[in-house]
């Protein structure tokens, strides 16, 4: 064979290899975008409830004082109590039938429930039926969210290359925080342009009704994707678990991992639900409207959201280079150290100092937010990943996250201390730090099948 012919063949093989890699990269990027957009829709729907809780208390509960806020925060907690049911059912279906169709369906469910909240008649029109409907719709939201997190993370994780898995998966977390930022900005714009009276009367419904077009976009994108290569391989090998729940709950190895899944994300409660979802209500009700109107409170939250959206991909890249455990431990230590002084700044009532406090907290928390879900996905094999991950994380969210707004409201009311969230952050940071010590490093490891 002539030298020129060998060069031509070698060149042809190289070009084909490049084409294959490029095609794989495109599929991975497409899956990542779909995961991020789906996360945006899911957590926009979920987040605006916390952002607009004061208006819900006025309209659905009939008052915005402590009693109304208490009942509305109970609605927040109820949605988290519904999450394990969504986790068990969706996890089972996801491990038995696949991730793709289920995740698209969950978007429709939560978007429909969110839009329906925007259509509930006020307490003055239908009385106690208004809070009853709110609770029902929150249950549907919670059910959907229970299956969403582990499903979306598993979906992208099973597409991502081993060396860049955390970076690719981090955009799902970015999507959730961008959703809160969008919700905060939209709420602030509506309040500023329409006024507080209009918001109280009818405009609070607009962000909820926007869930319809957002849900359609998310469903369209997710429904056009293929099933993940890892789950497809299980199907082709005919090794899909017959009962993934039984397999997850009867294996000592999986039970240990589920226990870690409950305690490792402890910091997620104060970090996510207090610092971002509950913060506007905290600023307005605990520190007084003379210090923080709802617009100013939303602007403080928006500053911290910008900080964490920028920081998360950087922390994820760092995790792909030096490991998951150092980044998780560093974030827990940082949160433990800065929580008290930063909440001291926030409770001064000064807008600028509150922005500094929340931004520093967001940057400290970003390492946890960027890495924790990647670790949880990597701890389980594909055969039970959706089920086991969902169950553990939902239980964790009930303990450390779902009750946070209700518990914080009651503790601040009973103790008179506005620094209660700081103590919650320090305690959960310690729990997360201790749990990191029991983890096995998973950076760069291939995902297990069984």
Give structural notes.
- By secondary structure, this protein is mainly α.
- It has a single domain, classed as MFS general substrate transporter like domains (Growth Hormone, Chain: A).
- Helices cover about 80% and strands about 0% of the residues.
- α7 packs across α19 (about 350-380), α15 (about 270-275) packs across α20 and α17 packs antiparallel against α18 (about 325-345).
- The protein is globular.
- It starts with a helix and ends in a 14-residue tail after the last helix.
- Mean pLDDT is about 85; it is low at about 5-25.
Brief summary:
By secondary structure, the protein is an all-alpha fold. Helix content is 82%, strand content 0%. It has one domain: MFS general substrate transporter like domains (Growth Hormone, Chain: A).
């Amino acid at each position: 064979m002539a030298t020129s012919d060998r060069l031509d063949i070698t060149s042809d093989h190289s070009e084909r290899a490049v084409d294959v890699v490029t095609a794989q990269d495109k599929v991975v990027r497409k899956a990542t975008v779909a995961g991020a957009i789906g996360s945006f829709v899911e957590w926009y729907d979920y987040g605006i409830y916390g952002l607009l809780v004061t208006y819900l208390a006025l309209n659905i509960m009939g008052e915005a004082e402590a009693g109304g806020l208490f009942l509305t925060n109970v609605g927040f907690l109820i949605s988290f109590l519904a999450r394990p049911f969504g986790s068990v059912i969706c996890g089972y279906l996801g491990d038995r039938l696949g991730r793709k169709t289920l995740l698209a369906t969950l978007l429709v469910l939560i978007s429909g429930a969110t839009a329906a909240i925007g259509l509930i008649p006020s307490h003055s029109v239908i009385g106690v039926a208004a809070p009853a409907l709110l609770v029902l719709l929150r249950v549907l939201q919670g059910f959907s969210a229970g299956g969403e997190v582990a499903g979306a993370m598993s979906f992208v994780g099973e597409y991502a290359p081993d060396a860049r898995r955390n970076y690719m998966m981090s955009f799902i977390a970015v999507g959730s925080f961008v959703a809160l930022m969008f919700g905060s900005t939209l709420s602030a714009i509506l309040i500023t342009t329409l006024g507080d009276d209009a918001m109280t009367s009818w405009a609070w419904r607009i962000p909820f009704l926007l869930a319809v077009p957002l849900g359609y976009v998310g469903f369209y994108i997710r429904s056009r994707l293929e099933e993940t290569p890892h789950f497809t391989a299980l199907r082709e090998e005919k090794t899909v678990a017959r009962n993934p729940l039984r397999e997850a709950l009867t294996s000592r190895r999986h039970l240990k991992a589920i226990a870690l899944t409950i305690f490792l994300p402890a910091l997620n409660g104060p970090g996510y639900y207090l610092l971002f979802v509950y913060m506007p209500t905290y600023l307005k009700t605990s520190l007084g409207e003379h210090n923080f109107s709802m617009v100013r409170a939303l602007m403080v939250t928006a500053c911290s959201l910008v900080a964490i959206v920028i920081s998360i991909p950087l922390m994820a890249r760092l995790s792909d280079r030096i490991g998951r455990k150092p980044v998780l431990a560093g974030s827990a230590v940082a949160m433990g150290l800065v929580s008290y002084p930063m909440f001291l700044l926030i409770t001064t009532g000064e807008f600028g100092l509150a922005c500094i406090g929340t931004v520093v907290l967001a940057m400290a928390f970003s390492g946890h937010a960027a890495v924790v879900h990647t670790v949880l996905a990597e701890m389980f094999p594909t055969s039970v990943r959706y089920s086991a991950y969902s169950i553990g994380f939902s239980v964790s969210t009930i303990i450390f996250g779902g009750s946070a707004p209700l518990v914080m409201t009651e503790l601040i009311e009973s103790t008179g201390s506005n620094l209660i969230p700081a103590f919650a952050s320090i305690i959960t940071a310690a729990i997360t730090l201790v749990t990191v010590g029991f983890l096995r490093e998973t950076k760069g490891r291939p995902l297990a099948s069984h």
